Q: What sequence folds into this?
């Protein structure tokens, strides 16, 4: 695996009874913010959402998909992110531009509240869905709160993003880490580990791009899980097991056929109006990746059954 390749690794520490997920999403975030041409403020929030989706993807079973929706009552209206078991991630920030002359303060971005909705599905059929209030007004913390309250699995999550000044290479690093309590977990020890995720030391280590993924994982687990009496030694007594999962990537499922189907659902009068306004062509833009699909009048007439 190359240094610039996104990855996701998941595992367990059986002695403390803790599940963990660690993901690097630099390329995924870069592709997502490019697809929507986000400004820096929206890029930071959308990047968090895409990285959260990468972490959540580790919890899926084969053939499943998570749809995550953040809705707020501020300048940031909503974020949407999908993730599949193959690691395919896509999303929509609304709006994609949040800045005027300056970045809005947090209270203006999120407003006075919102709602978090998580849907788990397979082949278009909903397996489970739930909503909680956006209690913490934070992209990452609000999903961790959802998992703890709605799914009733104590969870801690952190995402770090660092950006470059260059628009050609805007994302310096993007990483996320998730901890969850297993049924046999010592909850006091889990709470200590969850607190460690919020520390400056852990987040700096998570953002560090100078280590290969496995030594970096060991260091992060040292910081979060190693008991103080072991002097920070990871390899003694944690019962550690982990594996690489499907690497995350910003991948849209749109296609000409799907876009034709979208046009086919429109009324005849609407299609006629589009053809008139667009000079005999109908253009459809994917909301997830901004790819444009153009159909000629003959295609449209075939859809209408003319």
A:
């Amino acid at each position: 695996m190359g240094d610039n390749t996104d990855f996701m690794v998941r595992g367990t520490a059986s002695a403390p009874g803790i599940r963990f997920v660690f993901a690097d999403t630099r390329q995924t975030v870069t592709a997502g913010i490019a697809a929507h041409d986000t400004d820096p403020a929206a890029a930071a929030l959308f990047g968090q959402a895409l990285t959260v989706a990468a972490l959540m993807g580790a919890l899926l079973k084969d053939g499943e998909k998570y749809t995550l929706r953040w809705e707020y009552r501020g300048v940031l209206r909503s974020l949407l992110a999908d993730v599949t078991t193959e690691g395919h991630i896509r999303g929509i920030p609304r709006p994609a531009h949040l800045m005027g002359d300056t970045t809005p303060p947090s209270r203006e971005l999120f407003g006075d509240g919102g709602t978090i909705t998580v849907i788990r599905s397979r082949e278009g059929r909903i397996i489970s869905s739930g909503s909680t209030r956006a209690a913490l007004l934070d992209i990452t913390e609000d999903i961790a709160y959802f998992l703890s309250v709605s799914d009733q699995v104590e969870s801690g999550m952190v995402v770090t993003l660092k950006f470059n000044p260059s628009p050609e290479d805007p994302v310096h690093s993007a990483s996320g880490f998730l901890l969850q309590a297993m049924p046999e977990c010592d909850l006091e020890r889990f709470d200590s580990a969850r607190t460690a995720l919020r520390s400056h030391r852990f987040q700096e280590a998570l953002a560090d791009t100078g280590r290969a993924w496995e030594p970096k994982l060991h260091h992060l687990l040292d910081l979060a899980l190693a008991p103080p009496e072991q002097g920070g030694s990871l390899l003694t007594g944690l019962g550690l097991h982990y594996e690489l999962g499907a690497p995350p990537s910003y991948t849209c499922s749109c296609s000409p056929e799907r876009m034709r189907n979208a046009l086919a659902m429109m009324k005849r009068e609407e299609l006629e109006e589009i053809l008139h306004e667009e000079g005999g062509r109908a253009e459809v833009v994917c909301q997830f990746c901004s790819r444009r699909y153009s159909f000629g009048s003959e295609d449209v007439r075939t859809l209408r059954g003319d």
